[in-house]
Amino acid sequence: MTPEEREEALRARLERIQALERELKAKESAKKQVPLRLSAALWNEIAAWAEEDFRSVNGQIEYILTEAVRRRKGKGETV
């Protein structure tokens, strides 16, 4: 194998590794879907709160859960 062929093979291998790393990172950062049943009253409260905070209901629920986990872990830690 010539040095040029070797370099090209290494470059191709590096590109495959980088593509796999990007794919793995995308999977790790993907959000999970969770079916959630709420009472109409709770939904209305969250929807009103979300509107006050300029968020979607889904965004508000995620915010509430994130804050609850932060408080449980300790105020300085992030989720």
What does this structure look like?
There is one protein chain. This protein is mainly alpha-helical and about 80 residues long. The chain has two domains: about 1-30; about 35-79, Arc Repressor Mutant. The chain is built from three helices and no strands. Helix 2 crosses helix 3 (about 55-75). The mean pLDDT is about 90.
Distinctive features:
79 residues, mainly alpha, Arc Repressor Mutant, 2 domains, 0% strand, elongated
Short description:
This protein has helices at residues 3-29, 40-52, 57-73. The chain contains 3 helices and no strands.
Reconstruct the topology from this structure.
Layout: H1 3-29, H2 40-52, H3 57-73
Helix pairs in contact: 2-3
Q: Main β-sheet: number of strands, strand sense, barrel status?
A: none
How far apart, in Å, are the first and last alpha carbons?
49 Å
Helical residues, percent? over 70%
Instruction: Give the overall shape.
Output: elongated
Class from helix and strand fractions: mainly alpha
| Rg from Cα | 23 Å
What does the average pLDDT come to?
90
Number of domains: 2
Poorly predicted spans: none
CATH class of the largest domain: Mainly Alpha
The CATH architecture of the largest domain = Orthogonal Bundle
